[in-house]
Design goal:
Chain B: Keywords: Transferase. By secondary structure, chain A is mainly α. Helices cover 76% and strands 1% of the residues of chain A. Chain A has a two-stranded antiparallel sheet with strand order 1-2. The chains are: A mainly alpha, B mainly alpha.
């Protein structure tokens, strides 16, 4: 029996290094997860019995599988950026460098990573192995990354940002006008790629995402919320600006895999909760990390007049923050005062707790899927997301 | 030689509106650009009646929601700063000379011109497409109005911010509208138009070894204006299932766009005090004013004639007649 299992394992290792066998690999993987890891149902039972899924437990269980799957994901990610650069390359010589500027593969690539891992987890759950469908799922990741990046370029002009990802922002290098227009170019190409997927439901989801991105940015202009409304306004804005990308992206890959509406909803909710957690951690890091770690200046949100979760929580303990929030920290010393008070309050701690709750909910949704190595990667990813430093 | 006033009356006879002979005679004494404006206005007004075009097709209020109303507050602060966004916004709201929202009108006319039976009406999807065309064009105008700022300037920075957000809002809204059409071919065509108008900004009108300056101008204008109109015409024929006319519609859209833009350049060249910086001076360097005008009028007329020739493939009805009138009105 052990010889058989050993040869199976060898076959899997061999297959993982050969692209042509990847289709077979994903089938074998399913067997592997059933044979070699502890019966996944036990993990679920633990979560369901305690009522509060602990992501640390489920995350560390995946340590053995990590190297093989990691390599496959990294290969997919590298080819994703190559594909994006190629689709943006066939154009005017002066446009191409701007269009390709942020697709050098130096970013965190968290959105494509989540999208593709979830896609593969859903494929395992539904027993879907069509390579044509998998290619379309990759295109979803491509489209979402392109639209996300274009929105970053536009945001940098709006926020007068001078650096991003440890290099000068596009608007500093080429001027505001060309950056904005290059962003439009990227969006145009992204929509063309999306249309080529031949899926009306996916296109509709992508358009909802685009609309939410813009409306989220517009919501940031609005300083009219009362103290009671502020947190709800902040959460809605956070969904639109950040979580919607991941949520609709996850739902889209599930649609392509043939998911029914309840599975689509699970995919959407997983992406949504993960996205919310991601932004909350981002908001904490703005107060905690140095600019060298972030790749962009710290305390940026305060300087832009934005009151994020740490500030809103801090205002409960220090009501003197409320007028500062109201006037968007535009008086001299406001930014410094707010920064100091946030650190003195429990705002950062409470924000991390909220992020943790979102992560736990994401994990609960993820647990509905059949066990797979990709599901394990996502558990790990969720855990790492909560504890990241940049 | 037929006198100018007779020529005008002959050309405008089938517009249906009666021009008092005295008025048309006195009009002929003015510079021809005024004649152009008159015949253009008449052609467009008549065309609007043919397709039941609402007067204010795309007002900011019609796409308004809570979020966009914030923009209106900031726009007021921009008045007097000289940011291009104010001009664009003003033109969106107040349109006196019928040069606005003509693209939507062209799409509706094309939709109707292709209908072979008199009972057929423009489809709701085609009207949505006309609106999408206007949205994309407006987003293009707004985004290309962003200014390069090297030194801090609070007002112009605010203007840029508003321009980016407004343009993005219109683009997003056009995407949402596109999804309602349930036709991914049309989506692809409009997306190409968006990539094309963006690419146009990066083209220099300098002669190279393969292309003359005029060729480069054509390329740039095709990308900047032609692509959207051509693809919109093509798309509306796809939506109307007028398969045999799709290529003609696309070609017509391109020719009319180039003719229209050529005419805009001529009119602005004639009325511009500082001609040295004008694009036509760069296309025809060291050429006397009269010759520049004549040369470019020849370019324009070639496109008008091409458009009129393509129109013969369409059924003869009010809409195709109106399209012909609009094309001919450009020849002044």
């Amino acid at each position: 029996m052990t010889a058989f299992l050993a040869s199976q394992r060898f076959a899997i290792l061999f297959a993982s290094h050969n692209r042509q066998l990847c289709r077979a690999y994903s089938g074998l993987q399913k067997c592997e997860s059933l044979l070699f890891t502890s019966p996944p149902s036990l993990l679920f039972q633990h979560q369901i019995q305690t009522g509060v899924p602990n992501i640390t437990n489920v995350a560390t269980a995946s340590a053995n599988d990590k190297p093989d799957n990691d390599a496959m994901i990294r290969r997919d990610l590298a080819s994703l950026y190559e594909d994006i650069r190629e689709s943006l390359g066939k154009s005017q010589a002066t446009l191409t460098p701007i269009a390709q500027y942020y697709f050098d593969g130096e970013g965190k690539a968290i959105r494509p990573m989540i999208t593709m891992c979830l896609a593969k987890a859903i494929n395992c759950h539904l027993n879907q192995i069509s390579s044509e469908m998998i290619e379309k799922q990759k295109k979803v990741a491509q489209v979402v990354e392109m639209i996300h990046t274009a929105s970053l370029v536009h945001d940098d002009v709006i926020d007068l940002a001078e650096s991003r990802r440890n290099k000068s922002s596009a608007n500093v290098v080429w001027g505001q006008k060309r950056s904005i227009v290059a962003g439009d170019f990227v969006v145009g190409r992204a929509i063309e790629i999306c249309a080529a997927m031949q899926s009306d439901p996916v296109f509709e989801l992508i358009t909802k995402m685009v609309a939410d991105l813009v409306n989220g940015e517009l919501m940031q202009l609005d300083g009219s919320a009362t103290e009671n409304e502020r947190f709800a306004h902040y959460l809605e804005k956070t969904f639109k600006k950040t979580a919607s990308l991941i949520a609709y992206s996850c739902q889209s890959v599930s649609v392509l895999a043939g998911a029914d509406s309840s599975l689509q909803n699970i995919a959407f909710q997983f992406g949504r909760q993960l996205g919310m957690a991601f932004q909350l951690v981002d908001d904490v890091l703005d107060f905690v990390a140095t600019s060298a770690q972030l790749g962009k200046p710290a305390a940026a949100d305060l300087r832009l007049g934005l009151a994020t979760a740490p500030v809103l929580f801090a205002a409960h303990k220090f009501p003197e923050l409320n007028p500062l929030i109201q006037r968007r920290f535009n008086q001299p010393g406001d930014v410094e005062t707010a920064f100091y008070l946030v650190h003195r309050s429990d705002g950062l701690q409470r924000t991390k707790e909220l992020a943790s709750q979102y992560c736990d909910d994401a994990v609960t949704k993820l647990a509905h899927l059949s066990p797979s190595s990709y599901q394990q990667i996502l558990y790990t990813l969720t855990h790492e997301l909560l504890n990241r430093m940049k | 030689m037929v006198s100018r006033s007779c020529l005008i009356r002959w050309k405008t006879r089938h517009l249906g509106s009666s021009i008092h002979p005295a008025v048309s005679f006195s009009r002929s004494l003015f510079a021809s650009s005024q004649v152009y404006q008159t015949s253009w206005v008449q052609a467009v007004s008549n065309a609007e009646k043919v397709v039941g075009f609402p007067t204010s097709f795309l007002s900011l209020r019609s796409v308004a929601n809570d979020e966009i109303s914030n923009i209106a507050v900031y726009l007021k602060k921009l008045i007097g700063t000289g940011h291009p966004l104010i001009t664009t916004a003003k033109n969106l709201v107040y349109s006196n000379d019928k040069t606005h929202q003509t693209r939507g009108l062209l799409v509706l006319l094309m939709s109707k011109a292709a209908k072979r039976e008199s009972g057929q009406d423009i489809l709701p999807e085609q009207r949505t497409l006309a609106e999408i065309t206007e949205l994309v064009h407006t987003a293009h105008l707004i985004h290309t109005g962003v200014i390069n700022l090297n030194t801090p300037n609070a007002n112009l920075e605010m203007g840029n911010k508003m321009a980016v957000l407004c343009g993005d809002f219109f683009l997003a809204h056009s995407c949402v509208q596109l999804a309602t059409l349930q036709n991914l071919k049309v989506v692809e065509l409009i997306a190409q138009a968006i990539s094309d108008y963006s690419t146009a900004e990066f083209i220099d009108i300098i002669a190279s070894e393969n292309d003359s300056a005029l060729d480069r101008w054509s390329q740039q204008m095709t990308l900047r204006y032609g692509s959207l109109i051509a693809h919109a015409c093509q798309s509306t024929l796809i939506l109307g299932n007028n398969v045999e006319l799709i290529e003609s519609g696309k070609s017509f859209g391109l020719e009319i766009a180039l003719a229209w833009q050529a005419n805009i350049e001529i009119q602005s060249f004639k009325s511009n005090a500082n001609r040295a910086d004008h694009v036509l001076s760069k296309l025809f360097p060291e050429t006397p004013f009269v010759d520049v005008v004549a040369n470019f009028q020849a370019v324009r007329d070639r496109h008008v004639n091409a458009a009129l020739k393509i129109l013969t493939a369409f059924p003869q009805n009010d809409a195709s007649l109106a399209l012909g009138n609009i094309a001919r009105a450009l020849k002044y």
